[in-house]
Amino acid sequence: MRKLKITELNRISAEEFKETEKIPLVVVLDNIRSLNNVGSVFRTSDAFLVEAIYLCGITATPPNPEIHKTALGAEHSVTWQYFEDTVKAVEKLQENNYTVFAIEQVENSVMLDDLQLDSDKKYAIVMGNEVKGVQQAVVDACNGCIEIPQYGTKHSLNVAVTTGIVIWDFFKQLHP
What we know:
By secondary structure, the protein is an alpha/beta fold. The protein contains 7 helices and 7 strands; from the N terminus they run H-E-H-E-H-H-E-H-E-E-E-H-E-H.
């Protein structure tokens, strides 16, 4: 096997990305403190054609050299918006007919491997702070919660890793 050269990857430009059909998914970052995590979410969102990212509360916004370090330019291709209040971001999404899920360990959460999406609907996922998770007021505002099953001694994952896992699952179900 031979590794492919960057010129063989057929990458599209940021302008072409903006014109490409996206999966009906918005990622909401609720008070994410690590700029590396924010950048990583941009990069994963670019890779899997996420519609937009909502940056909320203390979550940093582009342009920012620390975000760029991990986003590698995806902050220029993926549409994003800033909201001071995450609950208001959730409410705006719901007003626009999005089903909003917090990714959080809660009573009656749906396990990600049991989740069945409807390709005719629009979705948003709320990712929580690295220490405190998704705020309870935000959980209360969501339509439901999704949990990633975990089987080891730890019961939490890095927010960028979690976002990647969930985006991939949504992509597999929603991409035509």
